[in-house]
């Protein structure tokens, strides 16, 4: 009997196995190209009498698409967060040399200067008086205001004591009292602080404004910005 040698028509009937190489990734993540290469490899080895169910194949593709989508979303969010941080840093740097308002009645007097602030009341108030106190709690100046409407009212202290002399540098605070609805009430005060410099990576990675007098505050705590 004649022996049939390999080649010719019989060779064309053999399974042609294709080789696939998963692209090297520094992060070890599979791309869509890698996934479909592995899927094709899996199909080439399956039992022809028991092919992979459509549902199973769709499930694998859906799982990969979901994972790939989450990865892309994470990358987009990282880029967005980086962009936001850069924008905040630029915004903060533009505040150097300007004054910002904070919800605090304490402030630092550096030299012979005026100090600006705002008093806040939810209802109209009468007989309003602003007291300026030093770090020891001693009253150095009293400024009568009179009646104010509900909301915010701006005021300025000239930096001088009751004697008329300039107050020494140091820590001070505004204490504001008035009559609201027939009762003696202490009103809230906000003050302006001048920004000397900016720390771009402070505690917790937040952007800090370094104020005159050595104190600092988070950029997110700024209520208002003034030119001077």
UniProtKB/TrEMBL annotation:
Source organism superkingdom: Bacteria
Biological process terms in GO annotation: bacterial-type flagellum organization
Limits of the FlgD Tudor-like domain: 88-222
Record carries keyword ATP-binding: no
Keywords: Bacterial flagellum biogenesis, Cell projection, Cilium, Flagellum
FlgD/Vpr Ig-like domain sequence ranges: 107-177
UniProt xrefs under InterPro entries: FlgD, FlgD/Vpr_Ig-like, FLgD_Tudor
Family to which the UniProt record says this protein belongs: Belongs to the FlgD family.
Purpose of the protein: Required for flagellar hook formation. May act as a scaffolding protein.
Protein known as: Basal-body rod modification protein FlgD
Species: Thalassomonas viridans
């Amino acid at each position: 009997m004649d022996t049939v040698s390999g080649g010719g028509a019989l060779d064309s009937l053999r399974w042609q196995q294709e080789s696939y190489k998963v692209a090297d990734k520094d992060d070890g993540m599979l791309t869509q190209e890698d996934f479909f290469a592995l899927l094709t490899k899996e199909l080439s080895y399956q039992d022809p009498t028991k092919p992979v169910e459509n549902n199973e194949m769709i499930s694998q593709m859906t799982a990969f698409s979901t994972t790939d989508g989450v990865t892309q979303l994470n990358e987009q969010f990282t880029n967005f967060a980086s962009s936001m941080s850069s924008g905040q840093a630029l915004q903060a740097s533009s505040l150097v040399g300007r004054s910002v308002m904070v919800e605090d009645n304490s402030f630092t007097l550096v030299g012979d200067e005026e100090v600006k602030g705002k008093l806040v009341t939810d209802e109209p108030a009468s007989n309003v008086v602003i007291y300026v106190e030093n770090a020891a709690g001693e009253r150095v100046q009293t400024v009568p205001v009179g009646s104010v409407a509900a909301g915010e009212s701006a005021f300025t202290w000239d930096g001088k004591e009751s004697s008329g002399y300039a107050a020494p540098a140091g820590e001070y605070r505004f204490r504001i009292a008035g009559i609201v609805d027939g009762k003696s009430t202490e009103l809230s005060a906000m003050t302006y602080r001048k920004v000397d410099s900016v720390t771009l990576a402070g505690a917790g990675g937040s952007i800090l404004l370094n104020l005159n007098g050595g104190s600092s505050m988070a950029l997110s705590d700024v209520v208002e910005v003034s030119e001077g």
